[in-house]
Structures are given as C-alpha cells and as structure tokens.
Amino acid sequence: MNTRQVSSFAGLLFGALLLGAGCFGSTTPVQTPTPAQVPTTPTSATDGNAPTAPEARITIQSFAFTPQSVTVSKGTKVTWSNNDSVAHTVVGDSGTPGTSGSIAPGATYSYTFTQAGTFTYHCGIHPSMTGTITVTP
Ligand SMILES: [Cu+2]
Predict the structure, then answer these.
(1) Which residue, among 30, 32, 29, 73, has the nearest Cα to 55 in the 3D structure?
(2) Reported pTM
(3) What would be the CATH architecture of the domain defined by 55-136?
C-alpha cells in the first residue's frame, strides 16, 4: 500500500463519514403548509343577490286609500291595489305619483318614488278620495 492509496482511502472514508453525518444530522425540513387558497368568489351584480327595492302597498277599499297617509324612503315602489267593486284612479295633485288611468276592481297601479318630498294624490273619479305619500331621502 503506497501513500497515494492510503490517502485516497482516507479521503473516501472521510467523505463517507461526512455523508453519514450529514444524513444523520439533517432533519427533514418542516413543510410550511401553503395557506389554502381562499377562492375569491366574484360578486357580480347580476347574480340575483342584490337587495330588492323597497315596496309599499296601499289598498283601495270602500272609496278610500288605506292607509291614507304613508311614509316611504326614496326609491320605494308603491303599489295601489283596488279591492273595491268599482274602478278608481290615482292622480298626483302635482304630477307625482303620476296618473294611473282607470284601476279596475282587482287591478293594481304602481309608482316608484325617486324624489323626496310630500306628495298628495286623489282619485280622479271620486275627488273625495285623497291620500298622501311622504318620501324620505
Ligand atoms: Cu275612486
């Protein structure tokens, strides 16, 4: 055995020791769990979950609007239902809530209030029938 062989053997041994020590001493790195991807659900305005517009109902019965006075918020759709046996109309004294035309028994008339204020109306057929809608901003 000459010196060259010895040194190469020693080198091999040293390398094996290093390798072994490396294996023994190495700890498997703790896998940091990647945070679960929270799916970003796009909220589209057309998925039907949009809040519905507020609504209010007024009954026309016994030649009267019931309730006679209603307070709603701006954007509310008010629907008059004619429960009488004769036709009535809804006519805004100053244009709001429009002019319904004849509301037959069992029929309805709807108007969406887009401006705040106090609006009086009457029945074009029976002027004694009056009502007031107060619209808050
Ligand atoms: Cu009437």
Answers:
(1) 73
(2) 0.63
(3) Sandwich (2.60)
